[in-house]
Amino acid sequence: GGWRLLVHESLPSTSDLLKDLAVRGEPGGLAVVARRQTAGRGQHGRSWESPPGNLYLSILLRPRESPRTLPQWGLLLAVALADTLAPLLPEPGALRLKWPNDLLIDGAKLAGILVEGGTDATGNPWLVVGIGVNLAAAPEVPGRAVTSMQAAGAEPQEPEAVARSLLASLDRWATRRHLDGFAAVRAAWLARGPSLDATLTVRGRNGEVSGRFQGLSEDGALLLGTGGRVHAVVAGEVLG
Ligand code: BTN
Hints:
Layout: E1 4-11, H1 14-23, E2 30-37, E3 55-61, H2 72-85, E4 95-98, E5 102-105, E6 108-119, E7 125-133, H3 159-180, H4 182-192, E8 199-204, E9 207-216, E10 222-226, E11 229-233, E12 236-238
Parallel strand pairs: 1-2
Antiparallel strand pairs: 2-3, 3-7, 4-5, 5-6, 6-7, 8-9, 8-12, 9-10, 10-11
The chain binds biotin.
C-alpha cells in the first residue's frame, strides 16, 4: 500500500523520469503512468512504441537486499501482472509467461517488463521497473507476433485502473515473498511458464544455448538441461 501514483499525459519515457528521480535520492513507492510516450524503451536496447490506450507504467523500488536476488523482482512483477490481467480475459489460462518477464497469449507478445537498477549519490540502490501492456493497440514489432487485451477478447480497460490494480497485486506478492520467500513467486511463475522439458533456445552472454526447460533457480535464473548438464542462464533472451 501507500503507492504515490503520478499520471502524465505524455512523457518521453516513464522509466527515464523515474531513473532521474532515483539517482537524486527519491524514496521508493513512487509510480508514474503516461497516457503515451514519445521515446518508450524496451529490452535489449529496442524501442517501445507507445500510442494512447495502452498502459505505460514505471515504479521505483528500493529493495534492501543482495544484488543477486534483484532479478526476482522482474519475475514477481510478471506474476503480479498476470494475476491482474488473466481474469479480464475470456480464457484466463491462455495468458503465459516467457522467461524472464514477458506475457504472451498464443505465443504473441501482450506485455513487457524492463528492469533497470543502479545506486544513487549516497550509495543506496534503486530499481526502476517499467511495464508496458498492450490493452487496446498492438503496435507492430518486426519479426515478432504481438497481441492486445482487446484483440484477445477483453473489455476495454482504463490504463490508470489497470495500473492501480497491478500495484495492489504487487503489494500482495511482495508481502508473500517477504513471508514465504521467493519459492512462492517461483511456483506461481512456473504455473504460467513453459512446460517442463520444453525445448528452449536462449541467446545469453556467451552466445546461444538450446536445452530443455528445467525450471528456475532460487535466484530466478533459467535452468536449461543440455546433455546431462544443467545450465543456469542469468540474463538473456529466449528465442523460441
Ligand atoms: C520489453 O521490451 O519487453 C519491455 C518493454 C517495457 C516498456 C515499458 S512502457 C513503461 C516503461 N517506460 C519505458 O520507456 N519502457 C517501459
